[in-house]
Amino acid sequence: MKKVKLVLLALTALFMSVPRAGAEKNKNVDMVLPDTELIDVPTAGILDQYGFMLKTRFYSSGGVMGLLNFGVQERLNLGASMTIDRLVGSDSSVKMRKPEIRVKFRFYDGGYYVPAFALGYEGQGYYYDAVNKKYLERGKGLYLAGSKEMWVPNLMAHCGLNISDFDRNYLFGFIGASYTVEDKVAFLLEYDNLFHSADPPRLNAGTRIYITPYFQLDLAVREFGKSGHFDNGSPRKPERIVQMRYNTNF
Q1: What is the pLDDT of residues 21-49, one digit of tens each?
Q2: 195 with 224: CB under 8 angstroms?
Q3: Spatial separation of the C-alpha atoms in residues 58 and 7, rounded to whole Å
Q4: β partners of residue 217
């Protein structure tokens, strides 16, 4: 397992050291790219064609999630993610979970009054239950997301609907907001998993630090004020996460 950890660290270092293709063409353009997501909530933002994003997320009990996302067409993003439980720390029972796909198609760029809209699918959930072989918090599944700048510059509002369980066909909702200060730091707030008391909503908040326009560090807390247990008896409580995101072009 030490070899697995070394390989993952080496891959992360490799991606971080890759020179930005197209930097010569855009060397005078040094701006923050639109957010494709907040903490758990997707936005209508997408990567540009030939864009690439690598995200590493550190979550509770030493878990790590890796995500790759590609701008394969002008309006279409494709990607995949995978979680590894208990990777960080001394616990030897490290478990790799199967990869999950993600797709996003931005079909409307928005107008003066109407938000931009994107249709997508995300299979990545959280808190994997190995006994029942499912995530206790399901991924977004099929979703529709809208985003628009509101009232003041750099204040973005996001909302959407999603179906995460195609057996029950429950329709969930999510809302969020982000405010960016001088392309240096952004404050994130989201209310996720709305409409069904049997599957409680989640309030998440965090800060996104733009170390460079291409590299961001997220510090966030999920599920503010949560207590109790999941259906399988596992405790449900607030969770601190750290995310690193790196954007570049081919």
Answers
A1: 343 344 444 666 789 999 999 999 999 99
A2: no
A3: 17
A4: 209, 244
Across the chain, mean pLDDT equals 86
Beta bridge pairs of residue 96: 84
Mapped onto helix, strand or coil, the DSSP state of residue 122 is strand
Total number of residues shown for the chain: 250
Q: Which of 127, 126, 122 lies closest to 163 in space, CA to CA? A: 122
Identity at 216, one-letter amino acid code: Q
Superfamily of domain 2-18+34-249: monomeric porin ompg (2.40.160.40)
Q: Using alpha carbons only, what angle is made at residue 67 by residues 108 and 123, rounded to the nearest 5 degrees?
A: 65
Which of 68, 79, 81, 89 has the alpha carbon at shortest distance from 5?
89
**Strand, helix or coil for residue 14:** helix
pTM of the model: 0.84
| Boundaries of every domain in the chain | 2-18+34-249
**β pairing state of 76-85 and 100-108:** antiparallel
